[in-house]
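Q: I have 382 residues here and want to know how they pack in 3D. Can you give me a structure?
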Amino acid sequence: MRRVSCTALLFAALANPAAAADTSQIEHKRNELEQMRARIQALQERLGAQRVQRGSLQGELAATERRLGQIQGALGDADRQQAALKNQLARLERDKTSQLAALDNQRRALARSLRAAHTLGREGDAKVILNHEQPGTLARTLTYHDYIRREYRARLEAVSSTLTTLAQVEQNIHQQQEQLSTLLAEQTRQQDALLTTKQARRRLLAQLDAAISSDEQRLRELRDNESALQNLIGELRKALASAPPDTPAGRPFAELKGQLSLPTRGALSARYGEPRQLGRLKWQGVVIASEEGGEVHAVAAGRVVFADWLRGYGLLLIVDHGAGYMSLYGYNQNLLKRTGEHVSDREVIANVGNSGGNARPGLYFEIRHQGTPLNPLQWCNP
């Protein structure tokens, strides 16, 4: 009971009214969110010890697949940073080309001004004054001389400014190239870690498969997995029932039936209500066979109430849509949202994977109301 009470307080804080405008209240909200995340982490650890994972092999698989998710997330971030750096380098190279072209034009203009100034130098102002008897002609000539001198100085300053800008651009290019080199080295290290961790996962899966020697054990494993998910949903429902309502933006979820899109692209490899392994259990959601690393989208706006590993479902993310509705996304490669964060309609929240001990990549997807599974295909257009 103490666990439920603690969780209820957590979600009550999470669903606090909109943040006030002043800085002290914003800071208070930030601290409150960090406390909430710490409490949710404590809840997840207790669930992990009691229900989520059983036995040392399941615990090792959980740790390994979490580690894989972290590495894949880091590699995704690195890929995005690399693309951004390459775009910046391309922009800087274009800027350098433009500056070099401007410098070439300015140098030619400066050469013309220099020749004109040199001519004026041979005919100083005193000589011009002595050789002109008409005051009007003299004034125009002296004005022209002044114009030539000012143009020469302006051309010289333009060349100097362009040289300074060019030097800065080249320095920026050098810095970006160093950053890119460092990033590529880190990516190589992460790729090595990814390979090692995947090999460890394969060994664990082989050990788990060897430990389940009969159909009865496989059936028990599936039932235990469903029980773990049902227990988790129950914990979350109790917590949400004790918290002030958090109404997502947009239309109520109940009004979206038949208008949603599936969270990722791919063919359905398992449908709601179809028999599972051994024919004694039925699927409570759908499995969408998809490419590893593909984007997983939230089917509607809501708030993340669980983002962690769960036995049988791997890296699992659960979104609360209000009024008792939840959507569940399992088997993910990595999770892009944390517990407590709000998500918008169709926002990318995870990447497709095969966590939870699955052999092939795909997404496990459920919709529930008051804890009861609903047929996702009645809500989403395939």
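Q: Anything worth noting?
A: The longest helix spans residues 135-211. Residues 39 and 119 are 83 Å apart (CA to CA).
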